[in-house]
Amino acid sequence: MPLNKIKRTFGEIDGIKCSIVEKGISEERMGFLKELLEHNGFGVKISEEINADNIKSFTIGVTDILFNPVYSVYERTLKSIDGFKVTPAYWNQQTTVFDPRYWLMKRMKTIRKA
Questions:
Q1: Which among 5, 9, 28 has a CA at the least distance from the CA of 19?
Q2: Domain presence at residue 40
Q3: Which residues contact 10 (CB under 8 A, 6 or more apart)?
Q4: Domain limits at 20?
Q5: What would the mean pLDDT of 45-61 be, rounded to a whole number?
Q6: For 30-53, what is the mean pLDDT?
Q7: If you compute the radius of gyration of the chain from its CA atoms, what whole number of angstroms results?
Q8: What 3-state DSSP class applies to 17?
Q9: What's residue 104's pLDDT?
Q10: Looking at the domain assignment, is residue 2 inside a domain?
Q11: Does position 53 have pLDDT exceeding 60, yes or no?
Q12: Model-level pTM?
């Protein structure tokens, strides 16, 4: 679930009810989220889909149906493998720097375009 959508979605993966974290993601993104969520103690379930163009996409969910990635990231309850608190930019894989001032990312993009 992107961080700009607050409504959670639920579904079943391998017959287990899950809180869906993200749908239709790449294998690289799935690996990143799987490692991060498992490090934080969540039970992770993954579903693989193949679309009409034979492109693989994945759905990742956690068995904790109360999990909401938006709240977890902005409340800073998730930790990276290195022990830093996960920021929105880190969650979205925009940076590997753990700067809690997430609003600077938007400002830096604006400055770079000018």
A1: 9
A2: yes
A3: 17, 18, 19, 20, 65
A4: 9-113
A5: 91
A6: 94
A7: 15
A8: strand
A9: 67
A10: no
A11: yes
A12: 0.81
C-alpha span between 95 and 114 (Å, rounded): 21
Checking if the pLDDT of 110 tops 60, the result is no
Whole-Å CA distances, 99 to 74, 84, 86: 13, 10, 9
Contact by Cβ (8 Å): 29, 22: yes
What is residue 77's predicted lDDT score, i.e. its pLDDT? Answer: 94
Residue 69 lies in a domain: yes
User: Tokens 């409504």 label which residue?
Assistant: 7
Domain count across the chain: 1
Q: For residues 57 and 48, give the distance between their C-alpha atoms in angstroms, rounded to a whole number.
A: 6
- The reported pLDDT for the residue numbered 111 is 47
Does a structural domain hold residue 44? yes
Which two three-digit tokens encode residue 44? 């992770």
- Predicted confidence band at 89 (pLDDT cuts at 50, 70, 90)? confident
User: What is the CA 30 to chain-centroid distance, rounded?
Assistant: 8
Spatial CB neighbours of 76, under 8 Å, sequence gap ≥ 6? 85, 86, 87, 100
- DSSP for 20-78, written as a single string: EEEEEE-HHHHHHHHHHHHHTT--EEEEEEE-TTS-EEEEEEES-TT--HHHHHHTT--
